[in-house]
């Protein structure tokens, strides 16, 4: 594709394209498993943020808007296949802002699926002082259980993991919600029932962001619950491609 988009499993005959935005500190490789799970239903196009993996020599993005600005020209304008946006945690906010921009350009996506994030209009909760210390970030990774606890004791791993996480949290800390017209496409919001950072009520606030259908799905697990529910997520994607409602877990 290009510098911003990775396609691990090209599927030109799939019924839709799914653009995926990783979480804070994450990279495109984190969506390998989902790419496989949705094969045949949608072709996954995964955003690769600068400053990690094959873009490690590039400077980190400083604003969420910078990422949206850069990704928009890379999203294919393919009217034969519906476009669905998907994002987890920070990626949910990026997917949402991208959906808003696409809508303003007259090419609103067929659906927006957000995961592990409270609604964007809610007041931001400060997690720790800015800029966070290494200890703050390690504590956050341990709390969210997104990294094997044993790996957090290896300096060489932390040397790679902490800089992108710090940069992404700086972007989140600088974010200011700007109200605007609601989307018209369906919005599907997912959360884990044991997420220490995301409340179920906060996830419900995504309903405010669309005039179209809204679904909330509460699954078992913490902040990184997706890995245990890939088949369920694939069914949600298939439901949006076919235009049917997926099952809803209260």
Written account of the structure:
The protein is of the alpha/beta class. The chain is 31% helix and 15% strand. It contains 7 helices and 7 strands, in the order ββαβαβαβααβαβα. The chain has helices at residues 32-37, 64-71, 90-104, 134-144, 155-174, 200-204, 230-242, and strands at residues 5-6, 16-21, 42-47, 83-88, 111-115, 187-192, 214-219. Strands 1-3-2-4-5-6-7 form a 7-stranded mixed sheet. Helix 2 packs across helix 3 (90-104). The N and C termini lie far apart (38 Å). Mean pLDDT is 91; it is low at 246-250.
What's the short version?
The protein is α/β, with parallel strands linked by helices and 250 residues long. The chain is built from 7 helices and 7 strands; from the N terminus they run ββαβαβαβααβαβα.
Write the layout of secondary structure elements.
Elements: E1 5-6, E2 16-21, H1 32-37, E3 42-47, H2 64-71, E4 83-88, H3 90-104, E5 111-115, H4 134-144, H5 155-174, E6 187-192, H6 200-204, E7 214-219, H7 230-242
Parallel strand pairs: 2-3, 2-4, 4-5, 5-6, 6-7
Antiparallel strand pairs: 1-3
Helix pairs in contact: 2-3
